[in-house]
Design goal:
The chain is of the alpha+beta class and about 475 residues long. The protein folds into four domains: about 100 residues, Uridine Diphospho-n-acetylenolpyruvylglucosamine Reductase, domain 2 (2-Layer Sandwich); about 120 residues, 2-Layer Sandwich (Uridine Diphospho-n-acetylenolpyruvylglucosamine Reductase, domain 3); about 120 residues, Alpha-Beta Plaits, CATH 3.30.70; about 90 residues, Alpha-Beta Plaits, CATH 3.30.70. Helix content is about 35%, strand content about 20%. The protein has a five-stranded antiparallel β-sheet. The longest helix is centred in the C-terminal third of the chain and has 17 residues. The radius of gyration is 23 Å and the shape is globular.
Length: about 475
């Protein structure tokens, strides 16, 4: 029977019951210890919680969720808290319990012959990468927060990163899941099968659902052959249209060996060189645009490097590439990647930044960038567009830095207006207003505004079916009909 007593009484009894499950030392109530968990990565949201619980096994997660369901207390799952849309932050009511999964950090199995690894949700992404490498395998999910983000959060948000072009999003790297449902039942779907045509593929309901349908506690992930040859190059380009053409040429010339193709504008590179230690301009002259390309191959004889050089020579003759630097060793390759990573960090030093994580078909990337930049500059003369990102899969981080000298808060107050304008342009190019960061709390209203009504209703039906009392990460991804 659900508990219908006053909320403070329910929370008090719930706390005592959960302490009996996980141990009192794994309940956190001290304000200083709670503080890092109550704000999102960007500082857009802060919340409150009666307490934070750290279960140590999937069985403990199941019992905690069951107790919360019985007490009608909402649950907010949280991994590494590196998300960018407020999806793991409780609200201000103080009624939502924080469920942190960091203690579920075991690698349960690695089957090298089946090219799979079974990991718990609290495993740090870089630790999964390392375990795969030690078995002479590759786990290709790679993103800036990989040293602190957790696999459960990666799956809950369907994380992308820099190698989606070749290996796909987190969804594409997942074969099976273990999930605790909103009523506390545990579904064991940890199957390492690449073919299993026995009905609905239930795991895909939970990947990208941001904990709104249940709590992912473990996963079977795909591994790949470790590359024997890695070729990294920084290309100078006249415009984004040339980038799309060069990408197509590179894919054809190397037999789809391109793993990453990252677009960077000159303004972003200048920001990185100015503000971020270790960032230097590798080319003799300034160019309007740059692309960072990386290729993986299975041999060590240098064929990929030769194929890339031949392709670049042809692209140079066609006016698509103005200059290029091919990394001669791992240190030079790391320096190129440092520029790409530093571009993100450097924007913080340039004042306010209004950020967009959008995607359009690869062929439409150049026109989208031109249209969105023109509209932003029309609305606010002096604004500085910094579009960059994974042009190989059509995902552009269309960020807008404030005009020099403008008040930061006054600029950030324009976030809603600018985002509406950018997202409308994205929709006109048949794109998505959230490519890899998810919906969280930040984009719930945009989802209702931009997604077809029938699609929102289907999502609501799924939410009601799994979570009829609205206790799993409420207010995120999709909200009940007003």
């Amino acid at each position: 029977m659900p508990d219908s007593s006053p909320l403070p009484d329910r929370i008090s009894r719930l706390k005592e019951a959960i302490a009996g499950v996980v141990g009192a030392r794994h309940l956190v109530t001290d304000p200083a210890d709670l503080a890092p968990h109550l704000a999102d990565q960007r500082g857009l949201y802060t919340g409150r919680t009666p307490f934070l619980v750290r279960p140590g096994s999937s069985a403990e997660v199941a019992e905690v969720v069951r107790l919360c369901a019985e007490a009608r207390v909402p649950v907010v799952p949280q991994g590494g808290n590196t998300g960018l849309c407020g999806g793991a932050t409780p609200d201000q009511s103080g009624a939502e319990l924080l469920l942190c999964l960091g203690r579920l950090n075991r690698i349960r199995a690695l089957d090298a012959d089946n090219f799979t690894i079974t990991v718990e949700a609290g495993c740090i992404l870089s630790d999964v990468q390392r375990a795969a490498a030690e078995a002479d395998r590759l786990f290709p999910l790679s993103l800036g927060a990989e040293g602190s983000c957790q696999i459960g959060g990666n799956l809950a948000t369907n994380a992308g990163g820099v190698q989606v072009l070749r290996y796909g999003n987190a969804r594409d790297l997942t074969l099976g899941l273990e999930v605790v449902l909103p009523d506390g039942q545990r579904w064991d779907g940890l199957r390492g099968l690449r073919k299993d045509n026995t009905g609905y593929d239930l795991k895909h309901l939970f990947i990208g659902a941001e904990g709104s349908l249940g709590v992912i506690t473990a996963a079977v992930l795909k591994l790949y052959a470790r590359p024997r040859e890695v070729v990294t190059a920084l290309l100078a380009l006249p415009d984004p249209a040339a980038a799309v053409q060069v990408l197509g040429r590179a894919r054809r010339a190397t037999g789809e060996a391109v793993t990453s193709f990252e677009l960077m504008p000159r303004i972003g590179l200048e920001m990185a060189v100015t503000h971020v230690e270790g960032c230097t301009d590798p080319l003799a002259q300034a160019h309007p645009w740059y692309a960072l390309i990386e290729l993986y191959g299975g041999q060590e004889q240098g064929q990929l490097g030769q194929a890339l050089e031949a392709m670049l020579a042809e692209a140079f003759e066609a006016g698509l590439v103005s200059d290029a630097a091919i990394a001669q060793n791992a240190q030079q390759a790391a320096a190129f990647w440092r520029l790409r990573e530093g571009l993100v960090e450097a924007q913080k030093h340039e004042g306010g930044s209004i950020k967009h994580d959008v995607s359009v078909p690869v062929s439409k990337v150049p026109d989208f960038i031109a249209a969105a930049a023109a509209e932003a500059q029309r609305r606010l003369p002096g604004i500085r567009p910094v579009p960059f990102g994974h042009v190989g899969d059509g995902n552009i981080h269309f960020n807008l830095s404030q005009p020099p000298g403008m008040d930061r808060q006054a600029f950030l107050a324009l976030w809603g207006e600018m985002s509406t304008a950018v997202h409308d342009i994205v929709a006109g190019f048949d794109g998505s207003f959230s490519a890899e960061h998810g919906v969280g709390r930040l984009k719930v209203e945009e989802a209702v505004r931009l997604k077809p009504a029938v699609e929102i209703e289907m999502m609501r039906r799924v939410k009601r079916a799994f979570d009829p009392h609205g206790l799993m990460n409420p207010g995120k991804v999709v909200t009940p009909e007003a």
